[in-house]
Amino acid sequence: MSMAILTDITKCIGCFECVAACKKTNGHEADKPYVFHINDGLSAHNWTSIVQRPDKHFVRKQCRHCLDPACASACPVAALHQTSEGIVIYDSHKCIGCRYCMIACPYGIPRYDWDKPVPYVQKCNMCYERVKHGKQPACTAACPTQATIFGERKELIAEAHRRIKENPGKYINKVFGEFEVGGTSVLYISDIDLGFLSYVAIPGTKALPKTTATAMEAVLPTFFGVGAVMGGLHWLVRRRQKLQRENEESEG
Amino acid sequence: MNRVDVFKSVLWTLTGLAVATAITRFIFGLGAVSNLSDSTPWGIWKGLNVVPGIALAAGGFVVTAVIYVLKREEFHRYAKVAVLIAFLGYLSAATALVVELGLPWLVWQPVIYWQFHSALFEVSWCVMLYLGVLLLEFLPVPLEETSWFAGLRRFLTKYKLVLVFLGIMISCLHQSSLGTLFLITPEKLHPLWYSALLPIEFLVSAIAVGPLVVILGVLVICYMYRKEADRKTLSKLAYLGFIVTVIYGLIRFIDLGVNGKLPTIFDGSWQSTVFLIEIALMLVIPIVLLGIRKLRYSQAGLAIACFSAVIGLGLDRANIAGVMLQVPGSHYYPTIYEVFVSLGIVAGAIIVFLFCVEHFKIWDVKWKDPRERAEYCPKFGLASDVWLGSPGVTERVKYSLIFVLSFALGFALMPQDRIESKGVEEITVQKARGGDTLFIDGNLDAFGTLFDHARHVDNLGQKESCIRCHHMNVPLDKESGCWECHSSMYTATDIFRHDWHASPNGAAIACDVCHEPPQERQKASAKKCRDCHVDLYADSTADTLDTYLAMSYVDAMHILCVDCHRWLASADTTRAALAQCPTCHTGSQPDYLKADMRGELRRPAPNHVMMPPAVLQVKEE
């Protein structure tokens, strides 16, 4: 069962209730403007934020929980991994702190405890503990306008298309996250373009782990292939040298 | 001092600075010494030490392959140098990784937590294995000096071919996998560098430049210890590098051409300029110099070609792993401390390299001129020159002294402000402006709140009410504004002026008054402010006065307003509403102040706010 969050930008009033609920649920300390933050509100103490756009548009930013997550595919120790609900969660005791997930994520979501001697990666876990017990995430529960809702991914996509169809002209005819980078579990419908949420305005529909998959599949064949080629060369060279020596001996 | 001494002194200085920085980094975290940030998680430690370091260490497997697999015995004399360079290259990369990783004591965890889809998993396995292989390959050399492990040495020498084969197989794997690392960032890496063929390009370029690094190493030792290099074999080895470099150039440009990226090379952007410099260093100069037979056989031609190729490859890897991987909004430049570590690790590797050259039989070379030997070629391992002017200062003492001094200097240079602020932006608070109605907006981001001072005075009981907000307790000054002590927007400010208290021109208080003997004179054991200033009023300030710190402006303002309004909560400011920004920060601002604003209206996220806990836990009473 794939769970998802659908955020309707036209309904968001920018009240920050979701942010406050997230902070409270995850026990995050008060945040301050650190020099190592990006100006999008997300930080090691803030797993979701509201990005203000022109003309009173408020866009909630959070982990997109990709169906085929680049961060999980990049993580060398499987500290970031996907649950059966499609949620990407983080095992701090496995993490070695390489920060390859931060390089890999196309949305720039994972954040780091730069100021701590024992730092961890910080990102939204869609309140996995709550979801596991049949509850909805704190942010969607806190939303006073139902701008952000939680449910099964299939149903939410159907709901999104229904809203777009029933309100012609109100929305951009696209469910953001339906196909991007292989599909994400956090979906948006909006009357403004949400390209700013990712590093390129129109991310492809190809899941990023697929870019490395071919190379990774070639690893073992390469290993033995190189060994075989080198062994063959070695045999040839030795044989040639042996023949040469024998020739010299017979001539001499 | 001869050239070896000068060179080594520089190396030990850099190492000392690096160690001091590394210690600071482990105590205070990565943010204390580096400019790494959420937008630039990988800096020069990965971009200059780890990724290029591994690429430049490829000489080890290329040269051993030529010698042992292809049986080219004429290169045998460079086998030990090649393996040593490779070993130290990997060791320095691993050291950089230890400083760079967030949790370096868990660096071995890929051994138990497997993840076959990750290129980094594969790289870390290979690097660990290959470090072991290189150690075993090199171990017979130091073991020559002792008879203790003769059996082990014989065993390792006997099975050398197995180690060589393992080395080649593992190297081919992770040299290419380093390229695979960046396949997952098609949207971030600049198109001139991003290519589906990155793994192959990484492998081929490493094979091309690997032998050239070995040649450069040989030439440098020859220069330093005034020996003569055997140009004939070196040139032959360089020819191998030349051929592979041509292949690499073909792959790269055909790939660019097929993907239609060739026209963008000359589009004049700074990235294309960097690209052209990289191509010139990595491809054009080496191919021209090594392609012409006469130049290839001259020492200068060989040295310039190798140096250029090495710098070029380093630049290529640094571009891919850092410079061209930058995302919009990141303005990363390394701090001087990152540079210390980066250079210090390389310096440390070179120190070990020189030690091995001086103490072990790494190679055999001809003396340039046997008669010069006495003057210019000191017996290795002994100080040739007196550095401090007094006889008897051995090399060991001299370099220890240099190391300790630079180590201390490194600590003295550590960024005190940055460590204390823990990365919190320092924003000096501005005085609230306006007349009867104040606009309280400490950081001038236009998102302040209007405060009707006159109305508050009227409602709270005229002059008697001042004390409700103002502490009225700063000695000699009964009307201080908030911003005078709470002078930093988000960090606490030290408000105790020690020097003024002790100075004869100030308060002229004897030391013993506050630091009562026999206690040591320390801040913790000194008297508290209120022990003397009995007229200090507000109870709420008592705690902070014990630490001599005024809390941040943001916290002070929120607590002051909210604490009072919590009790006076009325219909329009219910207690629940008090926890929400827009209740007070309505976004309206006086017109006459708009010209002064620092920037556009930027709504601060509530993450920047510490609200009194009583407000967040709303209860009906």
Task: Walk me through this protein's architecture.
- The complex is a heterodimer of chains A (252) and B (621).
- Chain A is α+β, with helices and mostly antiparallel strands and 252 residues long.
- Chain A has two domains: 3-212, Alpha-Beta Plaits, CATH 3.30.70; 218-251.
- Chain A is built from eight helices and nine strands.
- In chain A, the strands form four sheets. A three-stranded mixed β-sheet of chain A has the order 8-1-9. Chain A has a two-stranded antiparallel sheet with strand order 2-3.
- In chain A, a hairpin with a 3-residue loop joins strand 2 (49-53) and strand 3.
- Chain B is built from 29 helices and seven strands.
- Chain B folds into four domains: 1-33 and 335-423, no CATH class; 56-331, Formate dehydrogenase/DMSO reductase fold; 426-490 and 552-621; 496-547, no CATH class.
- By secondary structure, chain B is an all-alpha fold.
- Chain B is 56% helix and 3% strand.
- In chain B, strands 3-4-5 form a three-stranded antiparallel β-sheet. In chain B, strands 1-2 form a two-stranded antiparallel ribbon.
- Chain B is elongated.
- The interface between A and B is large, with 80 and 82 residues.
Proportion in β-strands of chain B: under 5%
Distance between the termini of chain A: 81 Å
The overall number of domains of chain A is 2
Order of strands, main sheet of chain B, comes to 3-4-5
Radius of gyration of chain A: 25 Å
Mean pLDDT of chain A: 88
Structural class of chain B: mainly alpha
Assembly type: heterodimer
Helix count of chain A?
8
Helix content of chain B: 55-70%
CATH topology of the largest domain in chain A: Alpha-Beta Plaits
Keywords:
heterodimer, A: 252 residues, alpha+beta, Alpha-Beta Plaits, two-stranded antiparallel sheet, 8 helices, 14% strand, B: 621 residues, mainly alpha, Formate dehydrogenase/DMSO reductase fold, 4 domains, two-stranded antiparallel ribbon, 29 helices, elongated
